[in-house]
Amino acid sequence: MGSSGGLRRACGERGSLTLMLVTMSVALLALAGLVLDGGAKLNAASTAAAVAEEAARAGAGQVSRPTAYSSGSFVVSAAQARSAARQYLNAAGYRNYDVQVLPPRTIRVTVTVVQPTKILSLIGIGSFSVSESATATLVAGVTGPGS
């Protein structure tokens, strides 16, 4: 009688290991997706920030020559700054961006990158977007201690 009770318990638990393995596999797959696709998101954010910084620098260097010659003050030429930043972004292959000129010497560039997912797409998350902004300011002359 003792041995038949043990058999009944074992038969009642049949398949429980399979259910646990399936559950653990799904959890591990989700964790791997968070690690791999999360790392890709961090990389995309870093790249977007670097590209925004470079585009802002390209735009901030565009001095309004007429203003510089007439008054001696250096300000950013809004049209040239936008054009230089856009040319840099287009040459680098980015199409989703915003360029703002903040008079008199600052330019702000925002770059948005849409990153497709590799593993999280299996659970319905196909992509994510990352936006990064950078500003650059035109500095003219020599500045530093004692000046």
List the topology elements:
Elements: H1 2-12, H2 16-60, H3 65-71, H4 78-91, E1 97-102, E2 106-116, E3 127-137
Antiparallel strand pairs: 1-2, 2-3
Helix pairs in contact: 2-4
How confident overall, as mean pLDDT?
Answer: 84
Query: How many strands appear in the DSSP assignment?
Result: 3
What is the alpha-carbon Rg in Å?
29 Å
Going across the biggest sheet, name each strand in turn: 1-2-3
Distance between the termini: 99 Å
Please report the number of helical segments.
Answer: 4
Topology as a string of helices (H) and strands (E): HHHHEEE
How does this structure look, described?
With 147 residues, this protein is of the alpha+beta class. The protein has one domain (2-137). It has four helices and three strands. It has helices spanning 2-12, 16-60, 65-71, 78-91, and strands at 97-102, 106-116, 127-137. Strands 1-2-3 form a three-stranded antiparallel β-sheet. A hairpin with a 3-residue loop joins strand 1 and strand 2 (106-116). The longest helix is centred in the N-terminal third of the chain and has 45 residues, at 16-60. The N and C termini lie far apart (99 Å).
Question: Key features?
Answer:
3 strands; three-stranded antiparallel beta sheet; 19% strand; alpha+beta; 147 residues
Question: Can you summarize this structure?
Answer:
It is built from 4 helices and 3 strands. By secondary structure, it is α+β, with helices and mostly antiparallel strands.
